[in-house]
Amino acid sequence: MEYNTQLKKLALPEYGRNIQNMVDYCLTIPDREERKRCANTIINIMGNLFPHLRDVNDFKHILWDHLAIMSDFKLDIDYPYDIIKKEELNKKPGKIEYSRPDMAYRHYGKTLEKMTQLATTIEDPEEKEQFIILVATHMKKSYIQWNKEVEDQKIFEDLYDLSDQKIDIRNSNIKLPEMKDLTQRNNNNNNNSGKKGQKKK
To answer: What's the per-residue H, E or C state across 77-135?
Structure first.
């Protein structure tokens, strides 16, 4: 009895041993035309194994690429597509450049910086003040994610810098919510969300 571990390693295990055996047999056919007919038959069988992928773009092209791979690129036929090259299989993918936007204060994030700039453009005084307090409150929330404590004055100083000195509430009487209030509010929101997701018995 032969075990799979004793057999030749499959190039593409998802197609199984029988398909690989068909490909190996196809390689031994001396007549080129007959070899091509055999390859077409194998392609049809391979396609039937994954009928849900028939709507995928270039599905047939992918199958021919897989046939070439399973034959170790030794199948001498006229392929209907430009198949993948052997050297491309082991080619390292190109390096992906991650987006690293310049931020003066990374712990606040880019969105808060944009909100700060937006606050400078609001013309209505009452609306502007409410929006500034909203931004400052969110800044405090973001800050305490990294530091347990923060004075409101620190937030006001950072807001002054982020707004290019256009928003100055450093000497105002504005009082931001305490850290424990913010934490409790977040916990309550999370608990309420969990309860909504529970089914009634």
So the answer is: CCCCCCCCCHHHHCCCCCCCCCCCCCCCCCCCHHHHHHHHHHHCCCCCHHHHHHHHHHH
Would you say how long the chain is, in residues?
201
Domain that holds residue 181: 109-190
Residues of the chain with pLDDT under 70: 1-7, 93, 96-104, 179-201
**Burial class for 88, CB neighbours closer than 10 Å (0-12, 13-18, 19+):** exposed
Asked whether residue 3 is assigned to any structural domain, the reply reads no
Q: Are residues 78 and 118 in the same domain?
A: no
Residue 132 CB coordination number (10 Å): 22
Residue 1 lies in a domain: no
